[in-house]
Amino acid sequence: MALIMAIETSCDETSVAVVRDGIDVLANIVSSQINVHKKFGGVVPEVASRKHLELINGVIGEALDVSGACFETLDAVAVTHGPGLVGALLVGVSAAKALAYALDIPLIAVNHLEGHIYANFLAHPDLEFPLVCLVVSGGHTDLLVMYGHGRYRVVGRTRDDAAGEAFDKVARAMGLGYPGGPLIDRLAAGGSGAAVALPRAYLEEGSLDFSFSGLKSAVVNYLHNARQRGEEVNLADLAASFQQAVVDVLVHKTLEAAVQYRARTILLAGGVAANRLLRSGVGEASASYGLRVVYPPPALCTDNAAMIACAAYYRYLRGDFAGLTLNAVPNLELDGDL
User: Fold this and answer.
1) How far apart (Å, rounded) are the C-alpha atoms in residues 149 and 160?
2) CA distance 64 to 80
3) What confidence tens digit (pLDDT) does each residue in 215-272 have?
4) Rounded distance, CA 96 to CA 90, Å?
5) Each residue's pLDDT tens digit, 192-224
6) Residues whose CB falls within 8 Å of the CB of residue 134, separated by 6 or more in sequence, listed in order
7) CATH of 128-296, one of 3.40.50.880, 3.20.20.370, 3.30.420.40, 3.90.199.10
């Protein structure tokens, strides 16, 4: 048995979880800064890191209270050390190193993207390899093949904007606010995905990479041209058409990867994995191939420490521990053992 405390501070959520054996979530405390950053239209790195400093000790204490655990019963402490905002990451890394040193227990370093992948193992512990996973969030859009725990290969990634980043930028251009993904998803429910002709960037034949900057620019130009002509824009139709364009590409590339690498299961991970159209689109497209599609519940799609603890558990079993020289790596690559 292993009782692991995990700390996640890569962006604007201060989260601490206590998880037993990689699946039994005793506590998963998330303190969000969304309301702090809304007035800026996005996350301000310096503000985020200062809020983490204010919150981290209280969130650790709350996680212990809710879980019924105490410092002396912990077997390891895990932490996200990248990718993310460097100042925000440093708060979590420093706290985890201090705990590991004071309690004389192992320190486990977890890649934030790996954490998103492992949110699926919290919800679906029966997963069998090989798997194809689509990680879609505000900062990342990656396709990878997973052959085993800690054994994966990135086969596609965005060449410019991440899908979640495109959602946020388009929402800002439409005057919807922040965060953009949930706002566009809700607005799109009242519109038609075929109302506005928008581009899909499939790139060169055989490529599993993504590109969303052209689509984002097309929406901005559409809004600009309509305003120049004094035309009223149906925002619900525009939101639905934009969302459909993003999802069409994500679904197409994910199915290509599953077929190419002979995976029987597709995982969705990251904040955009909570998008209803993406979930239904991948599910419908996969049905004819006999593929299983799984994704975490919405609460585990966004940043949280339970997913970090789950990923850390498998590193714990391998004895894959970090030293007290561990540092934050804001541009950390997802790099498996293959």
Assistant:
1) 29
2) 19
3) 999 999 999 999 999 999 999 999 999 999 999 999 999 999 999 999 999 999 998 8
4) 10
5) 999 999 999 999 999 999 999 999 999 999 999
6) 141, 142, 143, 250, 253, 254, 266, 267, 268, 269, 273, 282
7) 3.30.420.40
